[in-house]
Design brief:
single chain; alpha+beta; Transferase(Phosphotransferase), domain 1; three-stranded antiparallel β-sheet; 7 strands; 25% helix
């Protein structure tokens, strides 16, 4: 996360404020936008996203993923539960880099999740 959060920061990636290295674990201090909820819960409560909001979310998600790529990081677990959406502005933030990895030139052999994959992962293009 330190690589993704290096300056200049991306407004669509959850910011790492501080971190501590402890025996057998790390402690991360992350920003918490308020009011917000994960996109999965937001969609369940509001039935679905209208076309305009879906486009806004997708544009912001692409910006977040391009930012990660520019820092040499692959998220590997993009799903509605890993996106926070502001209930006021509908701005999103990508979070949970626990399955992430540094970009490689060789094909990835392991992935997170089983239902959604990036086509680059399936094709071995990364």
């Amino acid at each position: 996360m330190t690589r993704v959060n290096s300056a200049p920061a991306c407004p669509n990636v959850l910011q790492l404020l501080d971190w501590f290295d402890r025996p057998r674990r790390y402690i991360l201090i992350l920003e918490r936008p308020d009011p917000c909820q994960d996109l999965q819960s937001y969609c369940e409560e509001n039935d679905c996203l209208d076309e305009g909001l879906a486009k806004k979310v997708l544009v912001q998600l692409i910006a977040a993923l391009k930012h990660c790529e520019s820092r040499g990081v692959l998220h590997r677990d993009v799903k509605p539960e890993n996106l926070l959406i502001s209930t006021e502005s509908q701005d999103i933030k990508l979070l949970d880099f626990g399955c992430g990895d540094l970009l490689k030139r060789s094909a990835y052999k392991y992935f997170a999740g089983g239902f959604v994959l990036q086509k680059e992962t399936l094709c071995g293009c990364l």
